């Protein structure tokens, strides 16, 4: 068991809580979920580090925000190239501390790099607007020709100051990259608080940014739990907070940060529906549903965890999906041929097993039971599980499981499926599989979700599009990524000019 502390990264270097006079407080054991082995200990109560990180970011802000946006982006161009060189290193780190397969870890890094590329468009995205001659200054006008004495108006987009990002465990490299590259490209300075379950790849991500030439203090990282989050989101010097995690914490962070006068965007949990129409391409359905329900061991906010089979689609869908799920090889994510890794930790495994027990108790038909996979019990493994004949009101239908459990409901029509889906308190994404343009259009029009997939199991928007859900899946206004991100990380300033 390792007692090595996870480093903080503040003012351009690796450091630790004791360097700022903090006492050794509670820690969280970072484990390899495939083996149960402890890799390191992450500080949970590093308030001194949080304070030092905000201070370093505040000191770096004047010079960084005055650096031309093109120069700020040059650091990100260099960083993108450096990440390509360290691609396998980062993917291997993710698999070790998170458990996902190497293919999934590579996807985690690749989608993160997409966000850096997008942030390099900050010079365009930050551009303001101008409307010349919006009025005439008659008091100083001594000629008939008023064109020289007009009043012009512009709106500039300017950086906010010190910004904070708080991230979940399920995409250790990508989710931080949703936040800080665009924030710093827009001229802000940043404090990242990664999940205490997977902090090691985030520390490396931040360290590589400095190797690429990001000046000291522009990007800082502090490990910690709830007390560190609460300290950061109410700090007088912090202007904006971006959060990704469960809905309960998202709502807490949103309300607390907003009450303290911060701008906040908080992405929360999900319970995503996939509607299977009888006319769908069956092979595409099975491929799409398997990837959506069991990819990343079901630990995705875009995981399709409910399938609604419409009409007689259940006749072929239920046996085929159970068969495909049974074939997924469960094991350590670093092993060749493994299709699904462990879940994040034993606590999560116990929670998922509890959900499966509840599904059986509530009368759903368990067509594939993943409670006892033939993998080392020291690892946090749960195999794919499929329930049929589920109904709203069952916990496996109403609550986010965040594990490899697919619940199948049956409805007679598309409209009945839409009504059931729209009763969910979540609204992250919804998917339809169909060969009918009419069905697809009806679904897209009426689905109360932020992201829609049409014959696509995981409709993850590329970085140029905004990412976020509706209802309890999102608290805020401006979404992550896309043009929304440049707006979220900047403030507008209107300038009205007249020359005598
Ligand atoms: P989590 O809410 O437990 O933790 C997220 C972050 O909040 C971590 O950094 C954690 O340290 C911090 N935190 C935890 N409890 C806190 C508290 N009481 N007060 C303040 N901060 C606290 O989430 P998780 O288990 O790491 O991640 C899984 C969740 O994230 C799932 O619900 C998933 O759907 C969601 N998620 C959502 C999106 C999205 O875009 N909507 C993306 C990825 C993950």
Structural class: alpha/beta
CATH topology of the largest domain: the name is: Aldehyde Dehydrogenase, Chain A, domain 1
Count every helix, treating DSSP H or I runs of 4 or more residues as helices.
16
- Rg, rounded, reads 25 Å
Question: What's the name of the CATH homologous superfamily of the largest domain?
Answer: Aldehyde Dehydrogenase, Chain A, domain 1
Describe the structure.
This protein is an alpha/beta fold and 500 residues long. It has two domains: 8-125 and 158-268 and 473-493, 3-Layer(aba) Sandwich (Aldehyde Dehydrogenase, Chain A, domain 1); 272-454, Aldehyde Dehydrogenase, Chain A, domain 2, CATH 3.40.309. The longest helix is centred in the N-terminal third of the chain and has 20 residues, at 47-66. The strands form six sheets. A seven-stranded mixed sheet has the order 14-15-16-13-12-18-19, sandwiched between helices. It is globular, with a radius of gyration of 25 Å. The N and C termini lie far apart (74 Å). The model has no long low-confidence stretch (mean pLDDT 97). The protein has helices spanning 47-66, 69-85, 87-98, 102-119, 122-125, 174-185, 199-211, 226-233, 247-259, 282-294, 313-326, 346-361, 395-398, 414-422, 437-446, 482-488, and strands at residues 8-10, 13-15, 27-31, 38-43, 129-136, 150-159, 162-166, 189-193, 219-221, 238-244, 263-267, 272-276, 304-310, 365-368, 385-388, 405-411, 426-427, 429-433, 451-454, 470-471, 474-475, 490-498. It has 16 helices and 22 strands. The structure holds nicotinamide-adenine-dinucleotide (NAD). Residues 166-170, 193, 195-196, 225-226, 229-230, 244-246, 249, 252, 267-270, 301, 400, 402, 428, 469, 473 line the site of nicotinamide-adenine-dinucleotide. Nicotinamide-adenine-dinucleotide is lined by residues 166-170, 193, 195-196, 225-226, 229-230, 244-246, 249, 252, 267-270, 301, 400, 402, 428, 469, 473.
């Amino acid at each position: 068991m390792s007692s090595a502390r996870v480093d903080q990264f503040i003012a351009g270097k690796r450091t630790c809580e004791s360097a700022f006079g903090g006492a050794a407080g509670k820690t969280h054991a970072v484990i390899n979920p495939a083996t149960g082995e402890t890799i390191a200990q992450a500080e949970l109560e590093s308030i001194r580090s949080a304070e030092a990180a905000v201070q370093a970011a505040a000191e770096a802000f004047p010079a960084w925000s005055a650096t031309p946006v093109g120069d700020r982006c040059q650091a990100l161009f260099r960083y993108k190239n450096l990440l390509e060189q360290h691609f396998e290193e980062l993917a291997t780190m993710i698999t070790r501390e998170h458990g996902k397969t190497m293919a999934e870890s590579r996807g985690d890094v690749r989608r993160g790099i997409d966000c850096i590329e997008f942030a390099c468009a900050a010079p365009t995205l930050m551009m303001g607007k101008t409307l010349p001659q919006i009025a005439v200054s008659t008091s100083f006008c001594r000629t008939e020709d008023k064109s020289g004495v007009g009043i012009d108006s512009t709106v500039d987009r300017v950086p906010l100051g010190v910004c904070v990002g708080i991230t979940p465990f399920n995409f250790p490299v990508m989710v931080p990259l949703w936040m800080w590259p665009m924030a710093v490209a827009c001229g802000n300075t940043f404090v990242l608080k990664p999940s205490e379950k997977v902090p090691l790849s985030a520390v490396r991500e931040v360290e590589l940014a400095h190797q690429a030439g990001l000046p000291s203090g522009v990007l800082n990282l502090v490990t910690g739990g709830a007390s560190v989050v609460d300290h950061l989101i109410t700090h007088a010097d912090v202007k904006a907070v971006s959060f990704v995690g469960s809905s309960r914490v998202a709502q807490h962070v949103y309300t607390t940060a907003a009450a303290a006068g911060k701008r906040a965007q908080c992405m929360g949990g999900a319970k995503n529906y996939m509607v299977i129409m009888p006319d769908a391409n069956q092979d595409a359905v099975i491929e799409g549903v398997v990837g959506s329900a069991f990819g990343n061991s079901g630990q995705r906010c875009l995981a399709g965890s409910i399938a609604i089979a419409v009409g007689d689609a259940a006749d072929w869908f239920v046996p085929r999906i159970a068969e495909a799920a049974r074939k997924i090889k469960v094991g350590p994510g670093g092993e060749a041929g493994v299709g699904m890794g462990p879940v994040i930790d034993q606590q999560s495994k116990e929670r998922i097993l509890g959900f499966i027990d509840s599904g059986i108790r509530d009368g759903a038909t368990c067509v594939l039971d993943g409670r006892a996979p033939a993998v080392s019990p020291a690892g946090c493994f749960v195999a794919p599980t499929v329930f049929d004949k589920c109904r709203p009101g069952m916990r496996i239908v109403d609550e986010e499981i965040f594990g490899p459990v697919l619940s199948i409901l049956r409805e007679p029509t598309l409209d009945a499926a839409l009504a059931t889906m729209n009763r969910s308190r979540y609204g992250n994404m919804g998917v339809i599989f169909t060969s009918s343009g009419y069905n697809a259009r009806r679904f897209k029009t009426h689905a109360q979700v932020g992201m829609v997939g049409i014959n696509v199991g995981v409709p993850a928007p590329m970085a140029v599009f905004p990412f976020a859900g509706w209802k309890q899946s999102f608290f805020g206004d401006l979404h992550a990524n896309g043009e929304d991100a440049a707006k979220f990380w900047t403030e507008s300033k209107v300038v009205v000019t007249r020359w005598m």
